[in-house]
Design a protein that fits this description.
By secondary structure, the protein is an all-alpha fold. The protein has helices spanning 2-16, 19-44, 52-60, 65-79, 83-88, 90-112, 120-158, 163-173, 176-191, 199-226, 230-234, 238-268.
Length: 272
């Protein structure tokens, strides 16, 4: 009965906090932020031992194929432009990418039922810092598979390990993407709300958001690739519609994770 009561209370909170409406706002800001964020990451590629395809692979694992085609096409068009201009515009792109995180801050504040008392520059500065932190995490996630492969080859050749070990090692390296998601969500749920929280109180939402987002993304991608007729219905806009729906589902998962943490915080009354 406790589980049923918890679900009922969570549904009530979702209705009161207008999770669906907030998720729609997040989907809009995610769409505006996606390409600037990718441009920032791609601008860093010449200084890193990774390729553009390595970067897009992070998204390709979860995004529907029609959306990835749209993303790759737009990235290629922009990269054909003046690369020096892209470098000078990096500050503007980070500012634009922080809009999505700024929307998440507002959603979490509503979940915790707190007002945003931080001034505009403090709140926006935190969003920019979170954006930079996530860029760093994404870069680390890209570097680990690259160097992880080299490390596996070294172990395989130096210690005479079996070829099966190398295959298992190569497969395990891609679990890094799941670890990266956990880290990103922990950062969001800890720093974004205008409320001091204990690390343990944000763990449930972070793990729910990680698992929920992976499952929903893979399920939605499978549905779109095998059953969805968005291209037939919307024509050339089909890729954008699929991307917006994916972002909408992502927003719902993220906000529900925040609601889970907020409910946990209310029950435990953290003091710091």
């Amino acid at each position: 009965m406790k589980g049923i009561a918890y679900v009922k209370k969570m549904i009530k909170r979702m209705d009161q906090d207008d999770v669906g409406g907030l998720a729609a706002q997040l989907a809009y800001f995610f769409l505006l932020s996606l390409f600037p964020l990718l441009l920032v990451l791609i601008s860093l590629l010449p200084y890193l031992p990774i390729s553009e395809d390595d970067l897009l692979t992070l998204f390709r694992n979860f995004a529907p194929s029609s959306s990835m085609a749209l993303i790759e096409e737009n990235i290629n068009q922009v990269m054909q432009a003046n690369t020096k201009l892209l470098s000078f515009g990096i500050i503007a792109t980070i500012w634009s990418a922080s809009n999505g995180l700024n929307a998440i801050v507002r959603a979490f504040n509503r979940a915790y039922k707190v007002e945003e008392t931080r001034n505009f520059f403090a709140a926006r500065g935190m969003s920019i810092l979170l954006t930079l932190a996530m860029i760093f995490v994404f870069v680390v996630a890209l570097l680990l598979p690259v160097f992880g492969k080299q490390l596996g080859v070294f172990l395989f050749s130096s210690f005479g390990l079996s070829e099966e070990f190398l295959q298992i090692w190569n497969a395990l390296r891609w679990f890094v993407s799941g670890v990266v998601l956990v880290i990103v969500f922990i950062m969001l749920y800890w720093l974004a709300p205008n409320k001091k929280l204990k690390c343990l109180h944000i763990a449930p939402g972070a793990f729910f958001a990680t698992g929920g987002w992976i499952v929903v993304s893979l399920a939605f991608s499978y549905y779109v690739d095998h059953f969805g007729g968005y291209t037939t219905t919307y024509g050339s806009l089909g890729g954008i519609i699929v991307l917006m729906i994916w972002f909408y589902l992502t927003g719902i998962i993220i906000i529900i994770g925040g609601e889970i943490n907020a409910l946990s915080s209310e029950r435990k009354h953290p003091t710091c």
